[in-house]
Write a structure and sequence with these properties.
three-stranded antiparallel beta sheet, 12 strands, 17% helix, alpha+beta
Length: 160
């Protein structure tokens, strides 16, 4: 309705998290994002669109690594990976040790520092070894798993 739209527009500048709903629509305002979803039960999501592939290549010529480093790939020390690598989204209480920072950081605090909306948080992929975060995909590698100059080889990981 016009009245609800006017109320949402008025409140956008007052707070960073708003939620409005009626029997047909759900509206969430989170930081700079406004998401509008239909609440009908016959709406479905094709989970095939969410499938991702983990591409892993062993890099033996370590002198090539500095030219290949960017946010779209992670370079890991294969000797630090002890469990199967899996992709998942974040969970409350997740913690990692970001390369370039001292100590550990709660993932929720890391997302707050990046000014992530709740939608961005829920869509952010994590590469994990068991339950431990190895890479916040396309963001930061956990320093416990990162390739170092003293490593004998490296794994280049990309999420496709």
């Amino acid at each position: 309705s016009y009245a609800l739209c006017a109320q949402i527009a008025q409140n956008l500048t007052n707070t960073s998290h708003l939620s409005y709903s009626n029997k047909h629509w759900n509206v969430k305002a989170d930081r700079l994002y406004l998401s509008i979803n239909q609440t009908d039960t016959n709406v479905s999501l094709d989970t095939k669109l969410l499938e991702r592939t983990i591409n892993i290549q062993e890099v033996t010529n370590l002198s090539d690594i500095p030219q290949l480093i960017n946010k779209l790939n992670a370079f890991l020390d294969p000797e630090t990976i002890s469990e199967t690598l899996t992709l998942r989204t974040w969970r409350n209480g997740d913690r990692f040790w970001p390369v370039g920072m001292n100590g550990s950081k709660l993932l929720s605090d890391y997302f707050t520092d990046l000014k992530y909306s709740s939608e961005e948080k829920s869509n952010q992929l994590l590469l994990c070894s068991g339950e431990e975060i190895v890479w916040v995909v396309n963001q930061r590698v956990d320093k416990r798993y990162a390739y170092e100059k003293t490593s004998s080889s490296a794994l280049m990981v990309q999420i496709l």
